[in-house]
Amino acid sequence: MANVQKTGNYPGPMSFPVMVFWTGLFGGIFLGTIGFIASYLSFTEIRPNVILEPWALGHWKSGWLGTVISIILIGLLSIGVAFVYYALLKKFKSIWFGLGYGLVLFLLVFFVLNPLFPGIKPFFDLSRDTIITSICLYIVYGIFIGYSINYEYQNNKDQKKETSS
Question: Which residues touch 134 (CB under 8 Å, ≥6 apart)?
């Protein structure tokens, strides 16, 4: 693999921080989109738009424009979440760390940050469907972020071993 020639304008593989950036952005947009679909299908009472409630004025935030902007904003915030995982947990080789990271994020949002979002009821006032759906979404999100970053970290480590030998 080391003798592969670059052709055309192809710049080569992404650097690891760029991959973390794209993983976070895609993971957040995916989480926001699936969250919207889950709320549309009445699996959860929480729409992605709750992220705009404390900061945006007007009724536009509950319409389609608010939904799109909310999903993009969740994607942008997710970049930071991915870099936190990268900084703290990239070396751990288990799917359980991603699952645990998703659960920690769930607890952070629903218990610590809950007062910031008036559209999210207190945890014990939420329906069982909302709680189960939200836990599942955060677990899948954590596993996606964790597994993607761990895989790339291990892959880069293995490639460095190959080129140094």
Answer: 44, 46, 106, 110, 126
Between helix 64-89 and helix 128-164 the angle, nearest 10°, is 50
Quickly list H helices, 2-127: 16-40, 64-89, 95-107
pLDDT along the chain (165 residues), means of 10: 54 82 96 96 94 83 91 97 95 91 96 90 95 97 95 86 76
What phi and psi values does residue 120 have, to the nearest 5 degrees? -105, 120
- The encoded tokens of residue 97 equal 């760390």
CA 28-34-37 angle, 5° bins: 145
Residue ranges per domain, the chain? Answer: 16-164
CA dihedral 151, 154, 155, 159 (to 10 degrees): 180
- 128-147: b (≥16 Cβ within 10 Å) or e: eebbebbebbbbbbbbbbbb
CA distances from 130 to 46, 94, 156 (A): 7, 28, 39
